[in-house]
Design goal:
The structure is a single chain. By secondary structure, this protein is α/β, with parallel strands linked by helices. It has a single domain, classed as Ribonuclease Z/Hydroxyacylglutathione hydrolase-like (Metallo-beta-lactamase, Chain A), CATH 3.60.15. The protein is about 25% helix and about 25% strand. It contains 7 helices and 13 strands. It has a 6-stranded mixed beta sheet with strand order 1-2-3-4-5-6.
């Protein structure tokens, strides 16, 4: 599997472009936005490679991971957007309300306009479900649905109430968002964070994910082995 990585947004998120079938791909955590001057980084890559993004998968809803949703939805009006229900309020037309809590806590309130009035989710990620099961649409081809079915959702709250990882057991790949980093894990001190839940989530991953799995986190080093 060729995992394309583009660094986007105010905190250099690892945005992943994940192959599915032919030109079809899905995007994980796009932070590229006009305020950061990188609004076109992901869409330019997709255009140059002649790729068709059918969906966006949000590992969680924090501002740096969702700021690119508006531009993606403007460029690809039929794109599907999935997030866990417990983080759903981070996006949608009232997104600025919840986003402001984290941004004020970080003294970064100037970024609130970039994450206000974001696109609404079209689907919700649920623990133990495949991406094919989460996206309730007939717009995907059979082969694209089959490829989406290779990815399963693991609910990993702690960094945020609705944090998830997505796991491709067949290819030995885990996209971990801000739950798991190289020799570290995501912060739990922002609004909605919970250190006890984070430790439980890390324990869950330790039980489910075999050694040797390639980990692709939301920031910093990627493609390291679990």
């Amino acid at each position: 599997m060729t995992m394309n990585v583009i660094h986007t947004g105010p905190l250099c998120v690892n945005t992943y472009v994940v192959p599915l079938n032919g030109p079809d791909v899905f995007i994980v955590d796009c932070g590229a936005c006009k305020m950061c001057g990188d609004e076109n980084e992901v869409t330019r890559f997709l255009s140059e490679k002649k790729l068709n993004p059918v969906a966006v998968v949000q590992t969680h809803g924090h501002f740096d991971h969702v700021a690119g949703l508006t531009h993606l939805a403007d460029c690809y009006p039929n794109i599907q957007i999935a997030i866990h229900k417990n983080d759903a309020a981070f996006i949608g037309r009232n997104s600025g309300v919840l986003q402001s809590e984290s941004l004020y806590a970080m003294s970064f309130e100037g970024f609130i306009p970039a994450v206000s009035n974001l696109p609404e989710p079209t689907s919700f990620l649920a623990d133990g479900k495949t991406l094919a099961e989460c996206f309730l649409t007939d717009s995907f081809s059979c082969k694209t649905k089959e490829a989406l079915g290779e990815w399963s959702v693991i609910y990993t709250p702690g960094h945020s109430p609705g944090s998830v990882c997505i796991y491709d057991k067949k290819n030995g790949v885990l996209i971990s968002g801000d739950t798991l980093f190289y020799q570290s894990y995501g912060r739990t001190d922002l609004p909605g964070g919970d250190e006890i839940l984070m430790q439980q989530s890390l324990h869950t991953l330790d039980k489910i994910i075999p050694r040797g799995t390639l980990i692709y986190p939301g920031h910093d080093s990627y493609g390291f082995k679990f």
